[in-house]
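Following up on my earlier message about zinc ion. Here are the inputs again, as you asked, copied directly from the submission form:
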Amino acid sequence: MLETFAYAANSPQSPLLPFSLNRREPGPHDVLIDIKFCGVCHSDIHQVRNEWGNSSYPMVPGHEIVGIVNRTGSAVTRWKTGDRVGVGCFVDSCRTCEACTSGEEQYCEQGASFTYNCYEQDKVTPTYGGYSRHITVDENYVVRIPENLPLDQAAPLLCAGITTYSPLRHFGVKPGDRVGVIGLGGLGHLGIKLARAMATHVTVFSHSPAKQADALNLGADAFASTTDPDTFTRNRGGFDFILDTVSANHDYNAYLNLLRRDGTLVLVGLPEPTLLAAGSLIFRRRRLAGSLIGGIRETQEMLDFCAKHQIVADIERIGLADINQAYTRMLCSDVRYRFVIDLERD
Ligand code: NAP
Ligand code: ZN
Ligand code: ZN
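Thanks, got it. Here's what our run produced:
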């Protein structure tokens, strides 16, 4: 066992506090990673606060992990000491179901082992995430961080990046399409960069008018304030594809009405349930879909795409001790555009 320093939540109400946890010694197929940086995703807040109703404690969040391989198990061939690697939202899966064999391990029919607030495939060993200095992971659930991407700015690609890349690809977004991105936070800002790199015309829908200049600097072609009711009449029927990254309750019908015939609204934000009017879908044969992160193969493809197009996250670096304040700021939409924990800082 290898003891490592971490931060954990002990209940939905309590702040995260220092915590000590044991990582397993690398087995034949494991790699031990020295975590250098870990991004802070809004899913961390949802789970720390038990907003999805499935939280267990102590919880060490964090699933945007990048670091350096410290050592490898005896049978590992793909990785060596010193490699720059990443670990995203899951650390294992059954490997035999239809989803796993199709490279979509996040949809594992037996249940993927999510990186924290979950269990290893033995269904008894809890998983602990990246708000910690080391992690031991099976070699097949590790990805390579391309050399030209700085590690700190690459960390958010492991969740926010793949979560926005995967639906853009899966739903066949193509050059010239009119794409909307709702919510300019961690996911949203990478959604803009990725959609732009795919040569689409991008409009940001935001309830924070002060983010207009940033949206355009990030590469958006247009900015629409959702606090202005005219936004919803002016943009009616104008979009091929809309990616909804909002973390709080809002009206999906209003955004469905912005789609043209056969357009698709994809939900990736995960707030409380909300009502849907059938008419919002029926009249222009619109589609409403959801999407969960991406598989290992597609995550590597996304990282290579980002390396080619020089796409990284805009980040604010913090120490573990700053995490509670970072959560407070994220809940006020006050982050430009991802907090990233530097594990070498206190
Ligand atoms: P984030 O950085 O906090 O950004 C969320 C954005 O939502 C905010 O910046 C804000 O954008 C908008 N927003 C927040 N409160 C709002 C409100 N009351 N009304 C309207 N808009 C509001 O969060 P994130 O890390 O990008 O995550 C976003 C959501 O995606 C979370 O629910 C998270 O759990 C989920 N998620 C899903 C997946 C998946 O696989 N499907 C993966 C990762 C995360 P504006 O200020 O521009 O309005
Ligand atoms: Zn996430
Ligand atoms: Zn499976």
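One observation from looking it over: The first strand starts at residue 2 and ends at 8. Hope that helps, and feel free to reply on this thread.
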